[in-house]
């Protein structure tokens, strides 16, 4: 019997009798094969069965590497991972694009999404037994000329403190004190940076400094924020189901949060029209709100907010008026080969607003900002 046919036959028997141990499965493989099989062949079959039915299959060994944040499958051309040192090639390989496609389809179906020739790319979220979550994206061939591509992002809830970030070299003592004073002054904050630069980690550390008598409402599309705070509420958006219904946007949750007696409202990531609602919250008595935003430097943040506000129908002059009134502090994170660091602090001033740079890591100066005068 051909190997693929053998595995399919065993899978059908396992579906009928799922409560089997490893010894029983090995016996089942021998019975279905109808011939003599060596122990090595049986073990290889059992390993392939696990790959095709449990977790993320053969990518489990890559996820087990300490500090891994991303795993990337480029069809049969290789598997890569990132643990903060740039992309590294993994020893894991796939024998055919059909294997990659089968894994991609299983992962997306398990997350409630659809992946087939009619819907050739999709993304979803999977919860794992170790408490982490995976953001899964896959694209089939075609349109991918490189074969089926899978991208996994490991989402670990951010529980790091300011002290821990200081010890890891994200910033020095003067910046740590500056950030504590920033939270105490109830300044609104936008943390900017690229993907994987540590925006969410810094945000969680700042929220852990909020006074315990304040109520924090965190709005995210994936539960990444877990500040060390007794009164932090987490609200999660969700995408539409396979029937095209049931979607809850971050803008929907932001409007609901205003009725939940918040002291501080936090958006895990601002990526669309919800920036309009956040600006409204900043200007209706909710001091100390926060969010993260994709931008490279504090100077680029205004242009990014303008682009997102346009999606919500907010005209440029109205946007600048709201930004001027809110005057959020900008914290810019940066990822390099040496790690993730805070490299700029700025504030918005004037109308139309302009960025005033208060501190830059490249100057090697002490961060001694007086937030009472800002």
Can you describe what's shown?
- The chain has helices spanning 3-16, 22-33, 39-51, 60-63, 97-110, 162-167, 173-184, 199-207, 250-257, 274-282, 298-311, 316-326; strands spanning 70-74, 79-82, 87-89, 121-127, 133-139, 149-155, 189-193, 216-220, 232-236, 264-267, 290-294, 329-336, 339-349, 354-360.
- It is of the alpha/beta class.
- It has three domains: 1-34; 64-156, Beta-Lactamase (2-Layer Sandwich); 162-373, 3-Layer(aba) Sandwich (Rossmann fold).
Sheet of most strands: 8 strands, mixed
Q: In which range does the helix fraction lie?
A: 25-40%
What is the CATH architecture descriptor of the largest domain? 3-Layer(aba) Sandwich
What is the residue-mean pLDDT, rounded to a whole number? 84
Ranges where pLDDT stays below 50 over 5 or more residues in a row are none
Query: Number of helical segments?
Result: 12
SS class: alpha/beta
Residues in β-strands, percent: 15-25%
Helix-strand pattern, N to C?
A: HHHHEEEHEEEHHEHEEHEHEHHEEE
Oligomer: single chain
User: CATH top level of the largest domain?
Assistant: Alpha Beta
In order across it, which strands form the biggest sheet?
A: 9-8-10-11-7-12-13-14
CATH topology of the largest domain: Rossmann fold
Number of strands: 14
GO molecular function: ATP hydrolysis activity
Family: Belongs to the GSP E family.
Protein name: Conjugal transfer protein
Pfam family, one: T2SSE
